[in-house]
Amino acid sequence: MGFLIKLAINALALLVAAWVVPGINLAASRGSATSRQWLALLGVALIFGIVNAIIRPIAFFLTLPLTLLTLGLFIFVLNALMLLLTSWIAQGMDLGFRVNGFVPALVGSLIVSVVSWALNHLIDAAR
Predict the structure, then answer these.
(1) Exposure check for the chain: N or C terminus, fewer CB within 10 A?
(2) Contacts of 29 (CB under 8 A, 6+ apart)
(3) What are the residues whose beta carbons fall under 8 Å from the beta carbon of 51, sequence distance 6 or more?
(4) What is the pTM assigned to this prediction?
């Protein structure tokens, strides 16, 4: 899949998570969105993609024994931590994305995963 399609899927998944999870705030998720808010959303999606492409594999490798010990359930914790890291970086860049704690990050990462999976399957089926 192309880079722009993956970026759009990440952006939509993060937007859905911001709509559904009360502890996730995104400037483009409420009311009418301006072009600046949509650019901020794409920026957050880009950060999320970079975090998942670079940092997540390293963290996965380092926590592999814990992941095996918990029969894979630690992956959910790892995904939540990646969402929290994305929030921290986005706040530093003043992009209007904030995750208020671990529980919203955990629920949000589940939603982002499901929405991303569904959108990827829809796009693959359309090809």
Answers:
(1) C
(2) 15, 18, 19
(3) 82, 85, 86, 89
(4) 0.89
**Burial (CB count <10 Å: 0-12, 13-18, 19+), residue 1:** exposed
Using CA atoms, how far apart are residues 105 and 76, in angstroms rounded to an integer? 10
Spatial separation of the C-alpha atoms in residues 94 and 37, rounded to whole Å: 11
Return the structure tokens found at 23: 């502890």
Question: What are φ and ψ of residue 111, in 5° steps?
Answer: -65, -45
pLDDT tens, residue by residue, 5-34: 999 999 999 999 999 999 999 875 445 567
| Residue linked to tokens 């952006």 | 11
